[in-house]
Amino acid sequence: MATARPVVSIYNFENPSEKTGTMPMPVVLQSPLRPDLVREVHRDMAKNKRQAYAVKPKAGYDTAAESWCTGRAVARIPRAPGGGTHRAGQAAFGNQARGGGMFNPTTIWRRWHRRVNVTKKRHAVACALAASALPPLVMARGHKINQVAELPLVVSDGIQSLTKTKQAKEALKKLGCGEELQKVIDSKSIRAGQGKARNRRYVKRLGPLVIYNEDNGITRAMRNIPGVECAHVDRLNLLRLAPGGSFGRFVIFTEGAFKKLSDIYGTLKSGAPKKKGYTLPRAAMANADLARIINSTEVQSVLRPKMERYTHGIKRNALKSKELMEELNPGSTERRAVHLKSSQKGTPEYDEVQKKKKARIEESKKYNKEHKKGDETFYKTLMKAFEAKAAADAAKKAAEKADDEEDEE
Amino acid sequence: MHNDETIWACLGENGFCSFKVRWKEPKQDFCRNPYNVNGLCNKMSCPLANSQYATIIEEEGINYLYMKTVERAHSPKNLWERVKLSRNFLQALEQISKHLEFWPDRVINRCKQRLTKMRQMLIRMRKLSLKGGTKLVPIKKKTEKREATRELKAESAAKVDLAIERELLERLKQGTYGDIYNFPKKNFDSVMEKEDEEQELQDEDESDMEFVEDLGEDDEEWEDIDNKVEEVEVEGDLGMNDLEEVSLPARKKRRGKVEVEYEHEIDTR
Fold first, then answer.
1. Mean of the per-residue pLDDT values of chain A
2. What CA–CA distance (Å, rounded) separates A1 from A289?
3. Taking CB atoms and an 8 Å limit, are B73 and A3 in contact across chains?
4. Does the distance separating the beta carbons of A145 and B74 come in below 8 Å?
5. Quick check: A150 and B16 CB within 8 A?
6. Is the pTM of this model over 0.95?
7. In this structure, how many other beta carbons lie within 10 angstroms of the beta carbon of residue B153?
8. Contact at CB, B5 and A136, closer than 8 angstroms
9. CB–CB of A149 and B77 under 8 A?
10. Residues of A at the B interface (Cβ-Cβ below 8 Å)?
């Protein structure tokens, strides 16, 4: 079911049960959802903060080793020169040697960073923002927002002036983020892997991202609350909006920031005022509810009636199944019945058959009497043919004999 | 926007959802969302991807019908509307039919099935709580082994049999059993002799010591005798020596009431 919610309530940060006003939803938050795009852009953007690592360029090759070549009853691998020490004569260079370099040494000129098209990056941010406005996506990402009054959560500007962490924490709790903050605290654990020894000892879940317009203390108030991050509307980072490449971060907007979204991104028609040459992404389908489209009157009215599928039962053999035979060859049952009856003495069918037979025989006899006489009888005809053939054979033989005699001579 | 299809596309088969649990063998996806009707992960059962959804949830023994509609889709706090279901099964079914009157049949059926399941679960829970479960305690192999070995060692160190024997003989000597038991005389005597031997040996030692002290003679002279005495002791004769003359009150004490007479052989070697 598609819903378009044009209006968002603004909550009083001191008393979140009351709403101080409403605001139309910026078009950014209605951008099409493109998880694939966000994942791709995040993947590339995340590579940009990397620091190079490599083995020393001379690693494993800082010896004057040379191969002893053949004739010395040793393998031909380069060996360390000199004498008087264990090292002398030991294999050097090569990944297989002890103290030798590695295969394919890691280098600093590896391509660490990736460039992403600006439009692509902006689309990704727009998409991530849109995802943050949908409760199912935020829940699916793992945030506990069951007590949050509304999504997107917009809070009055007063929250930007908070200076004390205690106040900030209370404000967040009142807004329904208590469960979320607790989740972060509970999730703190020692990192698995070497990171724990590399100044990355603890890991914890991420909490809400507070997007503000004017920093009158909010960053400093919020920064010590575990899990909470702050961001300025003008500088929204995909890496924070879609951590790990999965969009749907729990975002809290301040009133000013929410208003500014429309100023920055504009609409599909107007383009983005603050981003030169950029227009928000357009959905491939205006209405993505396939089921609704297919079942709509517009579509259904133009369809031809549904084809009745012929479902084949078990194939029947007409020679075995009398019913099927009758279907295919109407009258066959009757004929068969008659045929059966005709061999039973006494029935009219039998009499009929006999009558016909008699007539046939009579006919034949009559014909024979008329036509087959004298030389026309069967025997005579047969012998005639035989004699003809015999004569022909004899003539052939005589001819052959004559030829043979000729040949002999 | 908030379109069920697009949301399912983001969450479903090829997407990511934190509630999804994928099994490879057998190939099955489950949903850990508490509002899911049947616990499976598919488009029809996903509470996130369906803006109109209904479930039965059990809280402290009471079943509630939870419903959500599109109209409240934007507000997670007010998303679910719940109706307390009657404890009477048939009435509860009717309640479901009434509240979900214009909903698709499948949804109604699924809710009713879930209600049945919940009720049966509650019945089972009540039965189990009456039984009083057995607490399972794990067996620690290492500890068990260790304790068993120690037990054996302690048992052999205690020498229970000997202690029992001694105790019984004590009691016998003291006469606690009186004349209840009839022992075959031979065995009885042999045991008593053994007992006495032990005592005598002990006594002998003592007597040696006493003798030396009492008479205050040179050790040299008596060394031989000591040796002799020792020899005699070793041979196992009933203590026969000059030394016998020395009566030791200790010995008598030990003997107690049982009187055994010794033959005194006066042989000094």
1. 93
2. 7
3. yes
4. no
5. no
6. no
7. 10
8. no
9. yes
10. 1-5, 30, 32-33, 35, 130-131, 134-137, 139-142, 145-151, 176, 246, 288-291
The verdict on a CB contact (< 8 Å) between B51 and A3 is yes
| Interface probe, candidates A7, A33, A187, A294, chain B, greatest B C-beta count within 10 A | A33
Tell me which chain A residues have a C-beta less than 8 angstroms from the C-beta of B4.
Answer: 1, 289
The pLDDT tens digits of the residues spanning A106-139 come to 999 999 999 999 999 999 999 999 999 999 999 9
Average pLDDT over residues A91-103: 92
B252 pLDDT exceeds 70? no
Residues in Cβ contact with A234 at an 8 Å cutoff, skipping those fewer than 6 apart: A260, A264, A274
The distance of A31 to chain B (nearest Cα, Å) reads 7
Phi, psi of B63 (to 5 degrees): -95, 135
The mean per-residue pLDDT over the stretch B80-98 comes to 96
How far is residue A264's CA from residue A324's CA, in Å, rounded to a whole number?
A: 77
DSSP result, A129-156: HHHHT-HHHHHHHT---TT-S-SSEEE-
The label of the residue with tokens 């972060």 reads: A184
Q: Residues of B with CB below 8 A from A178's CB?
A: none
- Nearest Cα residue in chain A from B51: A1
d(CA B195, CA B267): 25
Among residues A224, A243, A256, A272, which one has the least CA distance to residue A123?
A272
Cβ burial of A161 (10 Å; 0-12, 13-18, 19+) is middle
Beta-bridge partner residues of A228: none
The closest of A272, A238, A278, A271 to A128, measured between CA atoms, is A238
Rounded Cα distance between B16 and B7, Å, is 11
Rounded to a whole number of angstroms, the distance from the CA of A152 to the nearest CA of chain B is 8
DSSP state of A304: P
Using an 8 Å CB-CB cutoff, list chain B residues near A179.
none
Number of A to B CB contacts under 8 A, please give it.
85
Residue type at A174 in one-letter notation? K
Per-residue burial over A55-75, b = 16 or more CB atoms within 10 Å of its CB, e = otherwise: eeeeebeebebeebeeeeeee
Residue B150: count other Cβ atoms within 10 Å of its Cβ: 10
**Which residues from chain B sit within 8 angstroms of residue A150, using beta carbons?**
74-77
Q: How far is CA A372 from CA A99, A208, A365, A378, in A?
A: 121, 119, 10, 8
A47 dihedral zone (left: phi>0; alpha: psi -120 to 50; beta): alpha
Please give the residue of chain B at the shortest CA–CA distance from A29.
Answer: B1
**DSSP per residue, A168-181:** HHHHHIIIIIHHHH
Q: What does residue A267 show for φ and ψ, rounded to 5 degrees?
A: -125, 180
Instruction: For A112-124, give the DSSP string.
Output: ------HHHHHHH
